[in-house]
Amino acid sequence: MSLYTENQLSLKSMVADFMKKEVVPIMAEYDRKGEVPMEAVRKGFEIGLHLLELPEAYGGIGLSYEDYCIVQEELSSYEAGFSTTFGASDLAVKAVMNAGSEEQKQYFGDFIAQGHLGAFCLTEPQAGSDAAAVRTTAVRDGDDYILNGTKCFITNGGIADIFVVIAVTDKSKGVKGLSAFIVERSRGVKSGKEEDKFGIRLSNTTDVIFEDVRIPSKNLLGQEGRGFITAMKVLERGRVNCAAGAVGIMRHAIELAADYAKTRVTFGKPIAANQGIQFMLADMKIAEESARQLMLYAARLCDAGENFQIAASAAKAYAGDCAMKVTTDAVQIFGGYGYSREYPVEKLMRDAKIFQIYEGTNQIQRSVIAGAMLK
Ligand SMILES: Cc1cc2nc3c(=O)[nH]c(=O)nc-3n(C[C@H](O)[C@H](O)[C@H](O)COP(=O)(O)OP(=O)(O)OC[C@H]3O[C@@H](n4cnc5c(N)ncnc54)[C@H](O)[C@@H]3O)c2cc1C
User: Fold this and answer.
1) Which cofactor does it need (predicted)?
2) Pair 71, 11: CB distance under 8 Å
């Protein structure tokens, strides 16, 4: 019995073919440079990688969330920074599809479908885990809002053409005074400092600066005061996607480690002949398989319209932690060669770390789970 339907298998194979042809040959070079391979991103547009989650009614491919996560696992198993570029654009899509009016969904869908990336701007220097501490303001001025503030660590911050921004519309209301807006770059959004990251270096992460950026009030997503709820809904779905990325990285690390263990000879026999190595590989496989099941379970709950808050946080935290452990063990199996940039496993270890940090750190996932359990 296959874990996947025929349709899912053909999606996986389409993505694998694309990655092998367009990204794998250049990824080491772009990892060194710390740059987004824009030519490959544009080729990704041709096969609709920016449209996977956008519903068909708004010009997208409209995959189920399960299928979407399966595709994300496949992308990440080849290159997690490249998949982050599209995944982060989808965070903006998620926000508009969750909170937007029919008109906003159509507008945003058309914009993305023309071959543009989006970005989701929540984090600020004092507002990471404490997301409600946002200080960027959106002040009403006639039929417009004027935005001021700086967001940090924004994926696609330097390359997106459209942003979903969480800003304060009423400071006196605390978390209920946050609102979400669609903001086109053409309205005067500036990109600031680019992060020189140690992992997912094929993705772009920058500050995003709003200095008297004027937007029409029709760009407000939903009602004033609903921004925090919108952001949390976006992140809940995004967490399952993060789990998929972490599973993809694990899969790749395990394949490399198992192959290496069969060929590396010490004391006259392959290192794979040692039970110590076999058990390490078996534990890595247990982590991959169980994290994938948790990720698929959360995605299916989401597709079924069930409450998937605990499952999403559990999948993200578990897969992220497992990916870190599995990639560290893969480096261990490669010995000194694992520590060298000449071999591919150190990159996987660097890339894996982000899955314990973004879209809510794994400590915050545990807080979310405990909060839901103890409510
Ligand atoms: C590469 C990258 C891409 C990103 N992309 C985006 C993006 O596209 N959009 C966006 O809005 N943001 C993005 N982020 C931001 C990311 O979501 C935040 O970095 C993350 O939520 C953590 O916030 P922080 O960095 O401020 O850490 P802090 O909140 O300062 O946390 C520091 C440490 O303290 C722990 N901690 C904090 N509070 C608690 C608590 N109550 N209990 C226990 N432990 C706690 C944290 O788990 C962490 O270990 C990105 C970050 C990175 C690194």
Assistant:
1) FAD
2) yes
